[in-house]
């Protein structure tokens, strides 16, 4: 009996609350207008749509659907309707910038500690990233080291060919390109260390695919330099009896030696030594 009284009291209170929140017009009769409900739809009960909770008389909480803007904001940052995590779109420029930052940080760490002693955690710390983020761009430390130590030989060769081919004086263009390379070397100690370490890695495994790759890159650049020398010979700026291939190989060997010397002795001036070579070539005019 006490339970029944409590149940009737709870129902009466709920009805009173709904009546206060949604009053009917004074001229409306009970037959012409159905009772309002908590959902705002006519013809339904004022009781919450989910019913009553067991025999306690306490109504269940009514679930209200979030607004469309709130759902979109949540979905973009969390999950889609199927439950899959949504990853925000990243622009190609952002990916390229992050990759460049990783390469710069790795070059600094590798030149300071060596590739074998350096760790990916140290590279990540220098780049301000987590180690896991680096593995999204490079499969291993060795792959990252190859990118840091390598050059795009074909791009270098094409740039030399195009510049000299468009020049009125091929020898002057050739010497200008060479001078720029030696000037860049002066301010790139990290690059010199990585360049020499790349050659040493190839020398340690002369039969490896990596060593063959290094040799192929060198030959690609040597061929482009030899072509520029031939153009200077055809223009009468260098003697025709000089072997362009041997001269190209000699100049590239001097370049690698200059990198080594400038790396060991910061006081060794690569540009001043190059100017001596340039003067000798200029005096060889036919």
What does this structure look like?
The chain has 286 residues and is an all-alpha fold. Among the domains are: 93-148, Homeodomain-like (Arc Repressor Mutant, subunit A, Orthogonal Bundle), CATH 1.10.10.60; 153-282, Tetracycline Repressor, domain 2 (Orthogonal Bundle). The protein is 63% helix and 0% strand. Residues 17-22, 28-56 and 70-80 have low confidence and may be disordered.
Key descriptive features of the protein:
Tetracycline Repressor, domain 2; mainly alpha; Arc Repressor Mutant, subunit A; elongated; 286 residues; single chain; 63% helix
Short overview:
The protein is mainly alpha-helical and 286 residues long. Among the domains are: 93-148, Homeodomain-like (Arc Repressor Mutant, subunit A, Orthogonal Bundle), CATH 1.10.10; 153-282, Tetracycline Repressor, domain 2, CATH 1.10.357.10.
